[in-house]
Amino acid sequence: MAKIEDIALFDLDGTLCDYDKDLLEKLEELRSPKEPHLSSMRNAPPYIKKRVDMIRASEEWWKNLPRFQLGWDILNVAKNFNYRIMILTQGPRKNPSAWSGKKKWIDKNLGEDVDVTMTRDKGIVYGKVLVDDFPGYIEKWLEWRTRGVVIMPANESNQNFTHPHVIRYDGTNINHVKNALRLAKKRRFKEPLDLDT
Length: 197
Ligand SMILES: [Mg+2]
Prior knowledge:
Helix content: 25-40%
Shape: globular
CATH architecture of the largest domain: 3-Layer(aba) Sandwich
Number of domains: 2
Order of helices and strands: EHHHHEHEEHEEH
Largest sheet: 6 strands, parallel
Mean pLDDT: 93
Bound molecules: magnesium ion
C-alpha cells in the first residue's frame, strides 16, 4: 500500500500573519486628518489603493508583519500530529519585494529550514491538508484533491463559505480541527474522507 507523505500546507497572509490588520494600521498612519477612517479595504478609493501599493513595495513591511493567532493555533495542532509543515504562499506578480520579504518573515518566525513554495497557482501543490483563509485558493486546491482537508482561519470575507471538506476555525472549535487532522493523517491511500466520523 502506497504511503502518502503527511504534508500540511500553510498560507501566510490571513493565516500565519496578520496582513489585514497591519495594512489598516499603516494606512491610518498615512491618513490626513481630513480623510475618513478606514475600517476595511472594501470599496477603498483609488488613492488608497496607491498607498497600499507603496506599503506593499516595502520588503521590510512584509518581513515585520505580526503573527495571526488562529493560524498559529492550527500550526501547533499540525506539529503535534507530526505533519511535515510547508509554506504555500502567493507570489505577487509584479512585486519581488514581497517575495523576499515573505521569505525573511518565514526565516524569522519559523526558521530557515522550513520548505517554501511561492507560486501564482496554489492548486498545483500537493498536501494532505491545506490551511488557507481565501475561498478562491481553497476551491482551486480542492478541485484536484477531492479528498483533501482544508482548515480555513475565519475572517469577515470568508464567513459564508462552506464546503464538506473545509473547517472554518474561529478560535472556538479547535477540537474540530484536531479531529480533522487526525482523520486526514490516518486515512490510507485512496480511502474516502468522512470528517463527520
Ligand atoms: Mg491568505
